[in-house]
């Protein structure tokens, strides 16, 4: 059985490890990659470079604030102008210098030419029939049928022409058609992006200023750093493109100068040349000058585009420097908070040593004050790191509700102090009973009440020497017992056993006289104070006169005497009454016996 248990444990452990490994491998294989997906490579590379416009659009999406939006609009305008010139130059060069026709592409060009001729023929015939239909009178229906037939044939021929052009485009033998298709796509994309960027100068995005906490400031600094690097890359790209165009311009200019010199040398000796040759040469010269002029404009556009990106990067760098200054300022505040807490601890330690000689109280108070200071320091550091919460009223309300629940006893104790300070409360020196503990009140604080325990009223009542502290919440949530007058009156009771050999009536009369004379002043004062405490004249008068009760037993008659006395004088009064009653009993025993009264007579 033991080896079976061990085998089962090893199987469970091995299975858990295998499942964890499978889960980790699955997470690695199915996680989302942060790298952008590699775009599919097109079949034919674009003949016109649209990278300046694409970079300007990408940078415009990052613009924030009016100043950056102005740079973004300038970059878009310059990039769009440069790309438009590049398309115009490419279309002109493709028109002037068509691609060489090979035997493979000759059939495609012939098919396109035939389809174009057929479409043009159909259109001419349709126009002729329309003219005849306008002038003819009787044969209008016949002409309309021919028109419908020719229109259907024209649609078929157009489809054939599109198919032929598509095959020619797929072969890549016609650069002009490829450039025209690329320009059409560029125009469509430009219209869509123009609508998105039209509001940059009016609404735009708000200026992403650094936040008021370290995390927001660091995040803003990182974003600005990434934006500045992208702007620097766009500027380098514009400068690189400018250098390429400059080299191309220099080569074209040198070739144009050499070609112009050759043509100037040939023209005087060619008297038999036709005027058409001269016109062709002049046209070529004009096209070369136009090409050089466009290159100059494109070079200027890329230079200005690089300058715009450079100025934009400078603005971003200034904001990045401001964000770094905010981070340093926040770090300095945190450092000052830590240093301030350290010196506060040192100052409090020296102050406590001089003011509080008791080491136990000193240690306790020092721990409490250190905890409070550290809590305040952590709170300040969190405010610097995270900033002021945006929903401050809600947070304060929730925090207040939480503190109210957590500090309910302290809050109730605080309001209980007001109840104890009222007219029906307690005062220092009162004899009270709180939660079953009897004692004299020695201290009444804002949160707690301290009693000097004396035991139950029926016990000896001597102080036990223990101090008992109660939270003042008992004044509201519970109850307490206190004398309602300033005299602190209470009823005390004596028990006397009269032997059966003696007559109880003379003893009862003597006891009643003794107790009445001894408590007469107290009874009168107690009745007056109780009457004042009720505050109502229609209340029944409360009597404080002593009362005597008899209880027959086998050993004799028990006499129970109840009388009023002050709480502080209770033991002295009881002792004095006991002494007088004992003297009375001894006196009655020494007297000669007399005729006993019947047991039915009253006392």
Describe the protein in words:
With 603 residues, the protein is an alpha+beta fold. Among the domains are: 410-482, SH3 type barrels, CATH 2.30.30.60; 489-590, Alpha-Beta Plaits, CATH 3.30.70. 67% of the residues lie in helices and 9% in strands. The protein has 14 helices and eight strands. It has helices at residues 2-30, 51-60, 66-96, 103-135, 140-171, 175-197, 214-266, 275-355, 359-386, 392-406, 408-420, 474-477, 504-534, 570-590; strands spanning 431-434, 437-444, 448-453, 467-471, 480-482, 489-499, 547-552, 556-566. Strands 4-3-2-1-5 form a five-stranded antiparallel sheet. Helix 2 (51-60) packs antiparallel against helix 7 and helix 8 (275-355) packs antiparallel against helix 9. It is elongated. It starts with a helix and ends in a 13-residue tail after the last helix.
As a percent range, the share of strand residues is 5-15%
Look at the structure and give the CATH class of the domain at 489-590: Alpha Beta
Q: How do the helices and strands follow one another from N- to C-terminus?
A: HHHHHHHHHHHEEEEHEEHEEH
The parts where pLDDT drops under 50 for at least 5 residues are 33-37, 267-272, 595-603
Secondary-structure content class: alpha+beta
Helix content: 55-70%
Biggest pleated-sheet summary: 5 strands, antiparallel
